[in-house]
Amino acid sequence: MRKFENNFAYIDGANLHRGIIGLGWKLDYKRFRVWLKEKYGVKNAYVFIGLIPRYKDLYTHLQECGFTLIFKEVIYDGNGKPKGNCDADLVLEAVRDTYENKFNAAIIVSSDGDYAGLIKFLKDRGKLKTILSPHTKDFCSILLKRTGASIAYLNDQKSILEQIQKKAPDADRIA
Asked: In which domain, by residue range, is 26 found?
């Protein structure tokens, strides 16, 4: 049995989703939350995500899986594409929690080089456990790699974290 750890995960929701989908599989968020707890001692897992009303079922599902959602107001570009950059919110929350000594160590879930400054900050204070990259080694930012932080690649855990597609009854039967 793993001893109690009070670690927090800070998850860039869009980066996680795009990274895993780009690898050709779907993440089982319930398994992912359990895995974070068992593997990394994650007590609180924050997902930073743009707020788009049509995705309310997704938000409910994530909360039911045990994630705490931090919403960013979304704006739309000229083509109607939503933009809800959560980077600054994730950094601010992690830094605030560090100064308030709310956790033992942080796990950052992203491949985005914009977090390199946060990674250095957490490392300097002995508060970084690891970076979990939803992209492959080739697509994880060089800026994150240059920090010298431990980086684990979620694709290496695909067999554990992949959402299993349920077959329809008699799907294998030949007519």
From this structure: 7-161
* 171 within some domain: no
Classify residue 91: in a domain, yes or no. Answer: yes
- Count up the domains in the chain and report the number: 1
User: 66-123 pLDDT, tens per residue?
Assistant: 999 999 988 888 888 888 789 999 999 999 999 999 999 999 999 999 999 999 999 9
Residue 80 included in any domain: yes
CA 140 – CA 113 distance, rounded (Å): 8
Task: Please give the backbone phi and psi of residue 174, each rounded to the nearest 5 degrees, phi first.
Answer: -90, 130
Residue 151: which of 140, 167, 139 has the closest Cα? 140
Cα-flanking dihedrals φ and ψ of residue 136, to 5°?
A: -75, 170
CATH code of the domain containing 18 = 3.40.50.1010
